[in-house]
Amino acid sequence: MRIGFGYDVHKLVENRKLILGGVDVTFEKGLLGHSDADVLVHAVMDSILGALALGDIGKHFPDTDNKYKDISSIYLLSQVYELMEEAGYTIGNIDVTVAAQRPKLAPYIEEMRKNIANTLHTSIDNINVKATTTEWLGFEGREEGISSYSVCMLKKENN
Ligand SMILES: Nc1ccn([C@@H]2O[C@H](COP(=O)(O)O)[C@@H](O)[C@H]2O)c(=O)n1
Ligand SMILES: C[C@@]1(CO)OP(=O)(O)OP(=O)(O)OC[C@H]1O
């Protein structure tokens, strides 16, 4: 078994879609990034890469490479799944927290869990997604950005 942790932040700006957990969330602002800036999925990917001791997403999908411009982070997660499978691991469980003052994410959580579970070829019961405000404190509270934290446990087949 291996444990991993991931953390990411993206800035909220106008005229961008808000994609979180592969879901198009209705909001007046979206996250800025080279990819679709899905900060939740980025934290999940970094936790898996961390558990595998394979570095981070910037190493595998550099933001200097035009092929990743506006790319779906769920697609990048499928690439991380391939690396995990090659290393002989499967998902034990993943627990993610998104810190966002707004919008209310509760209505989207089940779809996010489904997207992540399907992409990682695991049961939805192994994927937990939580949202918290920061009580109007800090950059998330001022709605300048959204952050995400993820921990994961990976299991080796037959172990
Ligand atoms: N963007 C968010 C933030 C929170 N929630 C849900 O509301 C609950 C209360 O949030 P607190 O920050 O006051 O603890 C939280 O447990 C989430 O269920 C949300 O849906 N979207
Ligand atoms: C996801 C990548 C893809 O180029 O771009 P960004 O959307 O800028 O996201 P970041 O969290 O800065 O991680 C770097 C990149 O891997």
From TrEMBL:
SUPFAM superfamilies this protein is in? IpsF-like (SSF69765)
**Keyword terms, alphabetized:** Isoprene biosynthesis, Lyase, Metal-binding
Q: Which gene encodes it?
A: ispF
- Look up the domain of life of the source: Bacteria
User: Is RNA-binding among the key words of this record?
Assistant: no
**Requisite cofactors:** a divalent metal cation
Subunit info here reads:
Homotrimer.
Return the Pfam families for the record. YgbB (PF02542)
* Residues bound to a divalent metal cation: 8, 10, 42
Domain named 2-C-methyl-D-erythritol 2,4-cyclodiphosphate synthase is located at 1-154
Molecular function terms in GO for this entry? 2-C-methyl-D-erythritol 2,4-cyclodiphosphate synthase activity; metal ion binding
User: Could you confirm whether the keyword Lyase appears in this record?
Assistant: yes
The EC number on file is: 4.6.1.12
Cofactor, free-text remark: Binds 1 divalent metal cation per subunit.
Protein name, UniProt field: 2-C-methyl-D-erythritol 2,4-cyclodiphosphate synthase
Q: Which organism is it from?
A: Tissierella pigra
Please write the reaction equations for the catalytic activity of this protein.
4-CDP-2-C-methyl-D-erythritol 2-phosphate = 2-C-methyl-D-erythritol 2,4-cyclic diphosphate + CMP
